[in-house]
Every structure is written in C-alpha cells, then in structure tokens.
Amino acid sequence: MSDFFSDPKSALIALLGILGGIVTWLFKREVRRIDKALAESVRREEFNQWRGDMDRRHEENIDRLDRIEAATTGTHKRIDELYRDLVKNRQSGK
Q1: Pairwise CA distance, residues 67 & 61, whole Å
Q2: In this structure, how many other beta carbons lie within 10 angstroms of the beta carbon of residue 23?
Q3: Residue 45 — pLDDT band, cuts 50, 70, 90?
C-alpha cells in the first residue's frame, strides 16, 4: 500500500478519481435541484388559464358592482321623492 502512494502516477490517478467523484456528485445534485424546480414551476399554459380565470372573475365583479350601483341609485331616488313629497305635504298643509 505504501508503494501505491509513493508512485506519482498512482497518486495522480487517485486524486483524479476523487475529483471525478466530487464532480459527479455535484452534477447529480444540480440535476436533482433543476428537476425539482421544473416540477414546481408554473407552466405558461397554467399561467394563461389562471389569467383567464382572473379576468372572468373581474368581469363578474364589475357586473355585481354595476347592479349594486343601480340599486343604490334607485334607492336614493326613492328617498329623494319621499322627502320631496313630505316637504310638499307640509307646505300645502300649513
């Protein structure tokens, strides 16, 4: 065994083997990291579907707000007419 480390070729081969093992381990680790990132990433079609859903919800919310606005405006008009009628009745009753 001592002859193995005393020979420069053997030591160089051992160092290259260790270096190759480290490089292989690092490469496999990066490949796993990239595969995991790709699996968890959002695909373009999923993003477009999400955008379409958000646009649809936005349109629904706008419609609801328009209906609420119309109902509120109608209520305000009825209250204004009620006060106007009350004021007329008071003035005509005096």
Answers
A1: 10
A2: 10
A3: confident
Confidence class for position 7, pLDDT limits 50, 70, 90: confident
DSSP notation for 9-73: HHHHHHHHHHHHHHHHHHHHHHHHHHHHHHHHSPPHHHHHHHHHHHHHHHHHHHHHHHHHHHHHH
Structural domain of 4: 1-41
Question: Does 54 lie in the same domain as 36?
Answer: no
How many domains, in total, are found in the chain? 2
Using CA atoms, how far apart are residues 72 and 79, in angstroms rounded to an integer?
11
31, 69: one domain: no
